[in-house]
Design a protein that fits this description.
This protein is α/β, with parallel strands linked by helices. It is 38% helix and 19% strand.
Length: 512
């Protein structure tokens, strides 16, 4: 019986620790396992103590001494193995999303800063905060692959730093760059790889260009912090080095001359013809446009895009490979896993790096001129088809597929590259504008697809990358951000294998 208790207790402790390591927070699943495992081990210990008098008999002394010797040898071997691993420097990262392996984007940011600056990090902590262990490992890993030097400081011992760097809580990292006696800093309260990457990007102070956002005809609001707003994209672009400005689309007679990229998101009212004419002139001179359309809403951008070979198809893409999600009927919220691997915008995305669209349209592609390059970037599954009923998003059930439905890899994001007047015109068109809203921007890899599309349009190709995922504490997104997937579904992902192991342990102990 004690063997069964011990095995089951160890299994539960292991799964509890794995749940905390994966989700980076204590949940009901981890708590039940840790408490249950501790109780089982305590029960095994009590059972062993109750039998200790029997083991003191002469006939049991030799087996008892042998067992104690084996335990001591096992402890010595474990200590020796730990010391050898520490000496060798080998580190195995079995955490969810490999959070201790340095992401390529983060490595590039570190290398760029190390060329010109002295880079240091201070980990401010409270001695009772268990989170500092993982942060310490992360900073040590970053220090091993770059010039980063870090130290640990108890908040109570450095009250002056608490005010200087606006430190609000334990487990806060302050990144500092120094050059020629001057210093700049960024305070990171939740030090994940994603948060550190964004802080390092701000410290680099790169100048990526100017993005002009159209306003005035019901376009997306880039100052709105609500779920339907686009303030998150504004912050992401500023982090990536862009200056974000606005212009009134309904009154525009020329696109601003200093625009590196024009971002036009879901105009709900028809744009005046002089505004569309200004956009046409801008593109003919080698302008850059990122247009985000919305099925069932025609603001006039569709006609301009069609002139450049990107014809918006009326209707919604229905993808039976996607499930019902957040009140949207099955098939109308595609999870996209097919991309153009040869195009910079789609590079790095794939089956394990998906994006999400809530109600999306598609495009027909054709070349206006022989030398033009028109490409699809993100595609629905081969089972997808298009329904003309754009009101289907409001229904609880997706429309039935007609017998003559045209199944295909319908493109949901497309690009065009055109040589005009000795300068290259670049256009990116999305069949959905919700992908960039605050509610969905950081779901899955939406942020990477959207920002990389803007980078490509602005000819900032070195900026294209897959960004480390930043944790979202206390907030669940639907579809889930990758770092929250384990937290939400651990009862399915961990509970079943745990039950199998517990059953096997009990059967083995009973057989013994």
């Amino acid at each position: 019986m004690s063997r069964g208790f011990i095995l089951c207790g160890l299994v539960m402790l292991a799964f509890g620790a794995a749940a905390i390591s994966g989700s980076r927070e204590s949940t009901w699943f981890s708590q039940v396992n840790l408490i249950g495992g501790a109780l089982l081990l305590a029960g095994a210990l009590i059972h062993a103590i109750s039998r200790a008098r029997t083991a003191g008999a002469p006939a049991f002394r030799k087996p008892t001494l042998i067992a104690i010797g084996r335990v001591i040898l096992a402890l010595i071997a474990a200590f020796a193995l730990e010391r050898a691993a520490n000496w060798s420097g080998v580190q195995l990262d079995w955490s969810f999303e490999n959070k201790y392996e340095v992401a390529e984007a983060l490595q590039v940011a570190l290398d760029d800063l190390c060329e010109d600056y002295q880079l240091t990090a201070g980990l401010y902590f409270d001695s009772q905060d268990p989170r500092i262990r993982s942060t310490r490992v992360l900073l040590r890993t970053l220090g091993n692959v770059s010039c980063l030097e870090f130290d640990e400081r108890n908040i109570d011992d450095h009250p002056e730093d608490e005010d200087r760097y606006a430190i609000g809580s334990s487990n806060t990292v302050v990144l500092v760059v120094r050059q020629n006696g001057q210093e700049r800093y960024e305070t990171v309260e939740r030090p994940t790889q994603g948060a550190l990457f964004e802080a390092l990007f701000r410290l680099r102070q790169l100048q990526s260009g100017t993005v002009y956002v159209a306003r005035g005809a019901g376009e997306g609001d880039f100052s709105d912090v609500g779920e339907t707003g686009y303030s998150g994209l504004t912050a992401a672009l500023q982090t990536e080095g862009y200056v974000v400005k606005e212009f009134v689309s309904a009154a525009a007679r020329e696109i601003p001359a200093d625009a590196d990229v024009v971002l036009w998101v879901r105009p709900e009212r028809r744009l005046p013809e002089p505004t569309l004419a200004a956009l046409r002139r801008y593109l003919e001179k080698g302008g850059r446009l990122v247009a985000m359309l919305e099925p069932g809403v025609e603001g006039g951008l569709e006609s301009v895009l069609e002139e450049w070979g990107l014809e918006s198809i009326p209707g919604l893409v229905v993808d039976p490979a996607s499930s019902e999600l957040e009140g949207v009927a099955k098939g109308l919220a595609p999870l996209v896993y097919r991309y153009s691997p040869s195009h910079p915008v789609g590079r790095g995305l794939g089956g394990n790096r998906m994006t999400f669209f809530k109600g999306v349209g598609s495009f027909n592609l054709r070349k206006p001129q022989i030398g033009d390059r028109i490409r699809g970037i993100a595609f629905a599954s081969p089972r997808s088809w298009i329904t003309p009923d754009v009101e289907a998003l409001r229904h609880s059930k997706a429309p039935a597929e007609p017998p003559d439905a045209n199944r295909d890899y319908w493109p949901l994001v497309v690009t065009g590259s055109y040589m005009r007047e000795a300068r290259e015109t670049r256009i990116v068109a999305f069949g959905d504008a919700d992908i960039a809203s605050n509610h969905y921007l950081r779901a899955l890899y939406n942020l990477d697809l959207v920002v990389n599309a803007i980078h490509w349009a602005a000819e900032q190709t070195p900026r294209l990358t897959i960004r480390p995922k930043e944790g979202i504490s206390g907030k669940m997104q639907f579809p889930l951000a990758l770092q929250n997937t384990l937290t939400m579904y651990q009862s399915l992902g961990l509970l079943l294998p745990e039950l199998l192991l517990l059953t096997a342990a009990l059967l083995w102990a009973r057989t013994r």
